[in-house]
Q: What sequence folds into this?
């Protein structure tokens, strides 16, 4: 049996606007998906998970098939079983699907003795996402594979961002499930309807992302907090927030977070709060009191999938 | 005895950014301040109000003095009493101080048989505001004097906006008192610290205001709602919101408002929600349930102070 692990992610800055070619900052966090692969007597590919529904295991099944085909692997008279165990909440904008796919791909490639390049792993991860929603940006499989913090642009161009100070994020799950596809479409409609306003928002987001990147590199943690707040306002502007998300975002700030925002597509899912060192616990418990379904204290996962 | 009345106001779009030279849309609403002036035996100027504190009556006292001096009015052996009665909530961003000042100026000028031009009335109203905070934009005395809806730019340039459809706004007071001056300073600090981001926000707000103006003129009420929402996101971005204001803003949308936003300086004060015709009552009662201290159904006051 082989084992692989892949981290989930948070978007620190730039979600939604990344779809329009603007840069985004994405970080791997130490919430992880584990996959275990082994040969079994029963023919075919078998995916098991205690938690993930059968529907969402289908894409994994498909990419493992793709992997075998692309490498001309023939299983002859045996099969492959992949067991998945993930601590990343589902449909919450934390890259759970991508991490599960990446971990599965790596576990199977180890089992078969295949050496995959990072780019091949990501490309298979993107294929898995395509089975779920039409045209994914590729941001989730990319960060899960690389780890750390990346400046990401549409088309998969990445640049590593090296933080000089450790950062503590509190992630709070609103408990509201949403579809990334629907939120992306909603923003698409807004951008077509009000192109000039949207152009202004895009320009602003680009500047926020640039300033946030500099803040991470130079350890200006308060400034990073300001950028999270600015970013959140733009997400509110484009209509991907709601009263529960706002409550969590503002409560976090009111109990001392340096900044807080929706992370990911919005409409539900998670918010993140940047905590002063040692203040994560207090912020986390206030977020639970404010109605968060779950909270996670997360640090950046320096190492990607392995 | 003479009587004068002056309306309060809401900012439909563009607050804060108006300080930086961007246009704003401001509307007079049918919440009013009344002033009654009469000659009295006791020498001097006497201002009375059942509601307004003595401190905030001081500026009125000063501008009435200014008015008398500028017109060389001598009271000889009598005085003037001004009684104020206002239905506009105080320190809530609804232009209460300006309306009270404008009504008082008009009541006294009627008593003295003076014919003041609108510009003179506004100019005295601005002087009254200067006694309270340093450098007011002049937006409040301007709209209270003119009534209707105005596109306003710093320096007092105005252009009348004629709506083609009646608009119903619900105003909800968060009950949180705040200082306009402090909020304006806070935004000033943000703009100096992150000039490029702020430039993007300014550009975006300008586009929002232009589109909102067109929507009012052409009766595109849903589009006006979208502009309120976009505007609100930018106010959240610049840090003038809080969890209570967000609750009111989002609850209004969730119960069917076409758009909702903070109006005025933020940090407290009021939010406005644009209601579909006939839906004001439902939105108003939901806002009370959500914790608003008071709600007001407001229509545009077509006529200014008189």
A:
């Amino acid at each position: 049996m082989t084992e692989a692990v892949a981290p989930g992610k948070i978007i620190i800055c730039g979600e939604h606007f990344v779809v329009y070619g603007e840069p985004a900052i994405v970080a791997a966090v130490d919430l992880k998906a584990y996959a275990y692969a082994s040969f079994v007597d029963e023919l075919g590919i078998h995916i098991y998970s205690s938690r993930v529904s059968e529907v969402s295991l289908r894409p994994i099944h498909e990419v493992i098939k793709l992997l075998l085909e692309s490498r001309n692997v023939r299983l002859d008279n045996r099969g492959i079983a992949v067991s998945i165990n993930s601590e990343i909440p589902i449909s919450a904008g934390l890259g759970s699907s991508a991490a599960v796919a990446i971990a599965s791909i790596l576990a199977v490639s180890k089992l078969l003795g295949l050496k995959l390049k990072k780019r091949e792993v990501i490309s298979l991860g993107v294929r898995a996402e395509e089975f779920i929603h039409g045209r994914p940006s590729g941001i989730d499989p990319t960060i899960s594979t690389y780890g750390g913090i990346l400046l990401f642009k549409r088309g998969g161009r990445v640049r590593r961002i090296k933080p000089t100070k450790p950062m503590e994020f509190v992630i709070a799950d609103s408990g509201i499930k949403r579809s990334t596809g629907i939120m992306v479409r909603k923003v698409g409609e807004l951008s077509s309807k009000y192109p000039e306003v949207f152009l202004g928002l895009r320009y602003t987001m680009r500047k926020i992302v640039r300033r946030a990147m500099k803040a991470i590199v130079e350890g200006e943690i308060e400034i990073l907090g300001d950028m999270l707040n600015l970013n959140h306002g733009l997400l509110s502007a484009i209509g991907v927030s709601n009263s529960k998300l706002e409550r969590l975002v503002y409560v976090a700030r009111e109990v001392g977070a340096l900044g807080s925002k929706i992370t990911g597509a919005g409409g539900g899912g998670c918010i993140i709060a940047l905590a002063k060192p040692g203040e994560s616990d207090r912020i986390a418990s206030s977020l639970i009191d404010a109605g968060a379904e779950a909270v996670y204290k997360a640090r950046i996962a320096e190492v990607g999938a392995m």
User: Anything to note?
Assistant: Chain B touches chain A at residues 190, 193-194, 196-197, 199-201, 203-208, 210-211, 226, 229-239, 241-243, 246-247, 249-251, 254 (CB under 8 Å). The mean pLDDT of chain B is 94. The CA atoms of residues 16 and 184 of chain B lie 7 Å apart. The radius of gyration of chain B is 19 Å.
